Amino acid sequence: MNNTFKTRYFKLLFFTLTSFGLCAQISLPPFFSDHMVLQQEQKIVLFGKAAPYEKVTGIFKGEVLKTSANPDGSWRLVFSPSKAGGPYQLKISANNTIKFNNVFVGEVWFCSGQSNMGWPLYKSENGIREVEQSLHEKIKLFNVRRSMSGIPTEDLDTINKWTSCNPKTTKNFSAVAYYFARELYKRYQVPIGLIHSSWGGSSIEAWMNADAFADDKNKYELIKKIKTLDLNQLEQDYKVEEKKYNIYLDEVDVGLKQNWQSEHQNYSSWKTMQLPNVWRRTPLKQRVGVVWVSKSITLLAQDTAGDLKLNFGLIDNEDITYFNGTRVGSIKKNNVSRNYIVPKELLKLGENIITVRVKNPLDIGGFRSGENSFYFRTILEKVSLAGTWRYKVGTPKIKKPPIRVHPKYLPSSLYNAMLYPFFDYNIRGVLWYQGESNVSRAMEYGKLFPMMIKDWRAKWQKNIPFLFVQLPNRANMGIKQPNFREAQAQALNLDFVGMIPTIDIGDNYDVHPANKHDVGYRLAVAADHLVYNPSAIGHYPKIIETASMPKSVLFSFDQSIVHKGASEIIGGFEIFKNGVFESKANAKLVDEKTIAVLHSSNNYPIEIRYLWKDAPSEVSIYNDLEIPLPPFRKTVGN
């Protein structure tokens, strides 16, 4: 055999071996890793890639399984169901061997939605302390990295891995999911696995199968278009353009050039508006760009003896705050409350001027919190800043901002990339906290939400329990909130769907309430009732019977209820007739399971509404588990 022939022979041999993948390494999706939790009492399915026809062996808890890879290299092993326990080792062997350590069998929950599901633990109420105390060896976390796709894909970024629950891993993990798991572990003492897959601002459409929109021409055409696009690259390109646009707004801001923050500023050409308010509720016609606002306050001698504190709550998006012409603070993120210290050296006896430069490159714009977060505090007193402010637009003529690339506007984009890969990974159920991005389209949501649940169940091939958070109190929404809550509740017509009301634990002026503990706790109570202990008390009071009486209506409930109001009269009830408000209605407890709503209407039918407001102030009916009666409206007649 001459050298030329040898060379050609070995090249051909190498090509043949590699072509058939005999040198390929066996691999599994990233959610098979150390620290993973496998769903108890269900078949344990492992799958991945190998060389075509390669022999694959799996060993778990003494069970040995063997198979051969398919022609495309895919393989699957199905281990017997197992009771909760661990830690174990799971071993997969083929051309190479992979060992997974610290593997547990327990309860796996898929946690999804938008920003309130993704809200990190450290930003929740008492978050720093909670993070410090978050060492739980038998709670495991899997945080899905954000990704979009125009078509369903099984590929996940390899950065995704299971981790143990400790202060390093919980800090930026979902607070709602963490509190849920902690409560569930307290009750059942079994390993808990949390798969967190959410994206702030995402619409329900982003989490739905493209097939759901076959009859929606606009969405269907958009889905066809994005199938050929690299959505993640488009998002990165948008971020670059967004940065450029931010710089552009600074360059064309007349206020920066003319030093409108100066305490000697001439305000004769400035107009007035009422603050706090988002821009759409002010005289401003242009929401994007830079707006300067200013207000004079008067300080007495005793007020100047110490530092002054300024509080504006949330500002959308960026601010630079000045006091008597000196910059005292600046924050670029819209989800951080503005709390600034003004050194006493800047304070003057008499008139002082507060000036805030607000830059909004795309979003809502303005001051998002309520009057209770809008004040200054001296060493002696707290003084409201709510009321009339001067304002002037710093960017009166600007080019349009770049078109935003976000899953809110891209149907199925998150379903394809952040949900689809998990359909072969067995779970116990789903936690869902979403709706803020759809709140203006309640009727549509009432149809889409049950469709989504049914499709997810079909893909997981089981009737998985589905627990969701009904949207909380949030003021000034134009009665959108109660209509949307009612739309969410349409999903309760499906089996094994649970809802937890949060009408009492939101924040009237912040779309991201800090109290995530009670949300997680209530979800765990719902799981207890719906999944683990069906004989347990229902997770919120439900009306089981209605009786119309002369001048009153009796509502009977499935469980004991408690009135926590200051008087025996229960507030929050109203009477409507033909959709028109007629009167408020007093109500009282007749017994531990019955409420009588008293009314002055002369005839039936009438509609009784309870807490039918964006942010009702009269939440007082609870069950023994400290969970409130959710808002409702009900037509009653003879």
Write a short abstract of this structure.
The strands form seven sheets. Strands 1, 3, 4, 6, 7, 8, 9, 10, 23, 24 and 25 form an eleven-stranded mixed sheet that branches. The protein has a seven-stranded antiparallel sheet with strand order 26-27-31-30-29-32-34, with no helix packed on it. A six-stranded antiparallel sheet has the order 11-22-12-18-15-16, with no helix packed on it. The N terminus is likely disordered.
Give a written overview of the molecule.
With 638 residues, the protein is α+β, with helices and mostly antiparallel strands. The protein is built from twelve helices and 34 strands. It starts with a helix and ends with a strand.
SSE-based structural type: alpha+beta
Q: Report the C-alpha radius of gyration, rounded.
A: 29 Å
Largest sheet at a glance? 11 strands, mixed
Estimate the strand proportion.
Answer: 25-35%
Secondary structure tally: strands: 34
The total of helices stands at 12
Averaged pLDDT: 93
Tell me the distance between the termini: 103 Å
**Any low-confidence stretches, pLDDT <50, length ≥5?**
1-22
The assembly state of the depicted protein chains is single chain
| Bulk shape | globular
- Portion in helices: 10-25%
What are the defining features of this structure?
disordered N terminus; eleven-stranded mixed beta sheet; 34 strands; 32% strand; alpha+beta; 638 residues; 12 helices; globular
